[in-house]
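Lecture 7 notes: from sequence to structure.
We start with the chain below.
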Amino acid sequence: MRSYKYLAAVAALVLSSAAMAADIPAVSGPVSAPAFAAPAAPASKSSSFSWSGFYVGANAGFVVEDSATRVVGPDFNYAFEQAGFRAKDDAGFTGGGQVGYAIEMGEVVLGVEADINYLGSKRSFVNGNDSAKLEGDYFGTVRPTVGFVVGEGLLAYATGGFAYGKTSADVSPGTFTTENAMSDSIVRTGWALGGGMKYAVTENIIAGGEYLYVNLGRENYFEDSAEAVRVRDESINHVLRAKVDWKFN
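Predicted structure tokens for the same chain:
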């Protein structure tokens, strides 16, 4: 009698489970795994602006000469300052033009640039009525550049290469036993090193700033003069300038 009660309870449980299952809506087709959103890719420093292409432009700024100058004669070899001369370094104007080409490879921009510029550096020495003056005439460079895109339309770069220029010297009568005023000029070569920033104002206009250390080497003035005195000069110039370029598409 007790076994009939157990069978009846089991039958009731099975029937109630079947009824509950019938109330659950059926799901057709395979069950897919829950979808997860992929993490966002890190923002790139590259922009829609392309740095690749030819460009021409103009520049203007100032230059400070920081040269080492000595007087060389048969019985002496000393700096102007040691001879009692008062030295004066003047900042001067520099300006010119440049042409170049760049190619962009991801966030790296490689290029080459050539420029020619007026060199307004001046250095004078005075001792009583005696004086000597050294001046720059022009300088130019041919330099490879390596840049990195650091923001939307913003480029930072380093540069260095060949430099050339022309400088002149004037010595007054009576200076270092000279009987006549002397003038001489030298076309010289050296090297340049620097860097800067560029910003793409539009698709074609690029503005920027640049610093260059320009070393035009060590030369002697008045080598062909009948006078015994020589002026030995190592021309070093610090150039800080603004630049504007037009890039061809």
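Points to note: Confidence is low (pLDDT under 50) at residues 1-15, 17-22, 40-46. The helical segments are 2-23.
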